[in-house]
Amino acid sequence: MDIRQLEYFISAATHLNFTKAAKECYIAQPAMSHLISAMEKQMDVQLFLRSNRAVQLTPAGESFLTDAKQIVSLFHSAVVRAQQAACTDKPRNLHISYWGAYEQFLIPELLKKFHHLYPEIAMSISQNTQKNLISDLENGMTDVVFSSAVSFQGKKNIHHYVIDYSPCCLVVYENHPFAGLDLVDPRTIGGEKIVIMDMQGSPDYLAFINGCEENGFTPNIVAESPNYENLLMMVEAEMGVTILPKCLEPFSRPGLRFLRVDWKLSNSLSVSWMKNNLNPSIPLLIDVLKKDYPLR
Fold first, then answer.
1. Are 235 and 242 within 8 A, CB to CB?
2. pLDDT of residue 215
3. Mean pLDDT in each 10-residue stretch from start to end of the chain (296 residues)?
């Protein structure tokens, strides 16, 4: 059994669907099924319960999944550390990842300055979900992450530097009864249909739910979306209202209103990197960033 097989098993265990797992791993579905069966035979345990309707993990499969994730993570970290140990004195390529909309407008100017100072350092950029960004950072798949600071706070193995804070606003369509208000009482939001970012389980999501409950209501969430553009489109279509940071207002359509809310909810943007990542290009990038965004 090798690392690739463990990655196939993790994909199958995550999707609980061999066809989706095979597609994610770029192999045929029969090959995925055969590989899992071979693993079960080699281990002499049943990892999955299969039926015509569903695939489920057995208790043995759940236990193996936990260890398999740790093994794969350790392997990737070991590769990164070996690469870093081989060359620690000269700048190396940077892989930069980000999550949301605000970062899309912040990163280009920063990277332009960095590229002019260090043209020999190649950079790649990718977007991902908040959850995957943390995993990629810890596994050495990316060097630097731009995202909400909340998910990285408290992680002792990660440095994070807060760049900006933006208060969370209520976004409504131009004919909404609240559209003319300067300040919204959060208790009045309880009667609204709310569309929200698809981020359940994240610290940002829990902070939003707690903020609503502190003001006496449970939000009536009618739809979720992985990106803010879809939320703004739904608000403009009068399907509901949404909660977004004030910093996104310049990138919204004219017919929408970003209203201040009388609560303490805010969104923080940070840059994060692993403490054990010895890539000498990282501190160079952070130094350039700190000149434009001194510690607040």
1. yes
2. 87
3. 91 92 90 93 94 90 93 80 61 83 77 90 86 84 85 78 86 95 93 84 75 89 85 94 87 89 84 89 90 72
Tell which phi-psi region holds residue 129, choosing left (phi > 0), alpha (psi between -120 and 50) or beta: beta
Tokens matching residue 195:
């569309």
CB under 8 A, 24+ apart: contacts of 66-74: 68/6, 68/9, 68/10, 68/13, 69/10, 71/3, 71/6, 72/3, 72/6, 72/7, 72/10, 72/139, 73/138, 73/139
Helix (H) / strand (E) element for 223: namely strand 220-225
As for how many domains the chain has, the answer is: 3
Whole-number Cα distances in Å, 241 to 145, 177, 230, 291: 29, 11, 12, 37
Domain hosting 139: range is 87-163+269-292
DSSP state of 219: -
Q: What is the CATH number of the domain that holds 128?
A: 3.40.190.10
Residue 110 and residue 288 in contact, taking contact as beta carbons nearer than 8 Å = yes
